[in-house]
Amino acid sequence: MSAKKTPIIEVQGFSKSFGSKRVHQDLDFVLYSREVVSLIGGSGTGKSVFLRSLIGLNHPDSGRIFFKGRDVTNLSESEWCEVRKSIAYAFQGGALFDSLTVEENLRYPLDAHTQFSSSEKQKKIDAILDVLGMSGTQHLLPSDLSGGMQKRAGLARAIILEPEVILYDEPTAGLDPFNTKNIQDIINELKHKGQGGILVTHDMPTAMATSERISLLLDGRIAVSGPVADLDNNPLVKAFVTGEEMHGKA
Length: 250
Prior knowledge:
Elements: E1 7-18, E2 21-32, E3 36-40, H1 47-53, E4 62-67, E5 70-71, H2 77-83, E6 87-90, H3 102-113, H4 118-131, H5 147-159, E7 165-169, H6 177-192, E8 196-200, H7 204-210, E9 213-218, E10 221-227, H8 235-242
Parallel strand pairs: 3-8, 3-9, 6-7, 7-8
Antiparallel strand pairs: 1-2, 1-4, 4-5, 9-10
Helix pairs in contact: 3-4, 3-5
């Protein structure tokens, strides 16, 4: 008999509207430790809104968000700053500081959140760039990097504090097959090291290559959720993949 899995992130009855536009309604979601779950759904279904809510950048109108069993729904900003050390957000565009070099971008969270010495910070920066195949880019500006390298640099900054969970917002959007495969390999390597996460994506091959489970967001709720292998023939997932109209089918 397998041991009962404990959620690392659990969302219960999450609802969110912006003015008259309802984005989420009584949404339930769970992420277990050391797994990656892909969150798929059409454009405008609120996937990024959901991710941002998990680190306190958006606040639900109702419902609860738990991290490692702790209710984090109504934390203060200073309390959220502590949680964000454990839940990293890899923004879609990398969200690098344009005027800072790659090294300075990576040093920023280390300066803000650690007591490491300068040499310890340098060692950590060099090591993570090496892991991501970016050695030698320390002194380049973001504008000097290709799109794929900008995404990797943004991911490097997100994970440099060694978070327990990584929120990936369209990490392969706009990338060629070579760089897409690089990102897939990085997600799988981080998962192997114990850093799971939630992958928001329209890229089904990447979802299949990296995730244990897939959840489909439809009409403000999780309409379908299950192991990757079990969803191959699910009609709602097939409709999403083929671009058919899904509204109201859940």
